[in-house]
Amino acid sequence: MNKKYACIVFDDGPREPMLEMINKFIKNEFRCGFAIIGKKISDQTEAVLKYAVENGFELVSHGQNHIGLPELSKAEIELELLSPINEIERRLGYKITSARAPYLWADESVFTVCGEHSLPLLGQGITVAHDWEDAVTAKEISDSFIKNIYDGAIITLHVKYSTCEALDEIFAFLKAENFELLTPTDLFKVKNVNPIPLDRQITRV
Q1: Could you tell me if 122 and 184 are in contact, meaning their C-beta atoms sit under 8 angstroms apart?
Q2: The pTM is what?
Q3: 27 and 55 Cβ atoms separated by less than 8 Å
Q4: Which of 161, 166, 66, 61 is nearest to 121 (CA)?
Q5: Distance CA 99, CA 91 (A)
Q6: Assign residue 143 a region: left if phi > 0, alpha if psi is -120 to 50, beta otherwise?
Q7: Are 7 and 190 in contact (CB under 8 A)?
Q8: What CA–CA distances, in Å, run from 36 to 72, 76, 101, 161, 202?
Q9: Burial class (CB in 10 A: 0-12, 13-18, 19+), 22
Q10: First vs last Cα of the chain: how many Å apart?
Q11: Considering only the top CATH level, what class is 4-202?
């Protein structure tokens, strides 16, 4: 069976249960990305971010305040996207190299800023059950993921307990189907994506 590759980027970190999610990935020898909201970076959350980086996970900018970028001026878009990057670099010495727009909402002004700063904008490659909603169960999340996953997909999920619970069934399916989960950067590398597009949200490779 041919090897298949995909990437999950979990939005809205750092928060619980990010550490538990990281450890599940490590146990299964998978990796992923975490889209980080700048205002959630603190002395209290720094440890889990450092742990993620030290174990081969990728951090992604998810804006400073998780607000709709197209409603902002160009200077404000830059501030939103770059503030988490600068804070993570200051605290961890780690350089974030990609972003995801809050609410997956982007327009030409956002793409212009991303292009000027060589910041690929990661999108949503498959439709998964609305895992950000409290009423959605782990079973609904895993069933939806399994139904829709394909080789080369970049997937949007969230740092939430129901999503963390769903990972067990998701990982079992992916291993049976010869899938490997990679960070965004490693997915681009294994799929020979060079240069990485900067003029749109990247949903698949």
Answers
A1: yes
A2: 0.97
A3: no
A4: 61
A5: 18
A6: alpha
A7: no
A8: 19, 18, 11, 17, 18
A9: buried
A10: 20
A11: alpha beta
DSSP string computed for 99-153:
B--GGG---HHHHHHHHHTT--EE---S----TTSTT--HHHHHHHHHHH--TTB
d(C-alpha 61, C-alpha 35), whole Å: 5
- The residue ranges of DSSP E strands in 40-114, in sequence order, are 58-61
Alpha-carbon gap, residue 193 to 122, rounded angstroms: 14
> What is the identity of the amino acid at 4?
K
Rg (CA), the chain: 16
Close Cβ partners of 167 (under 8 Å, ≥ 6 residues apart): 21, 24, 25, 142
pLDDT digits (tens, 9 = 90+) for 111-127: 999 999 999 999 999 98
pLDDT in tens, 29-71: 999 999 999 999 999 999 999 999 999 999 999 999 999 999 9
Rounded to whole angstroms, the Cα distance separating 205 from 202 reads 8
Helix, coil or strand: residue 12: strand
Segments making up each domain of the chain, as ranges: 4-202
User: CA triplet 43, 46, 48: central angle to 5 degrees?
Assistant: 140
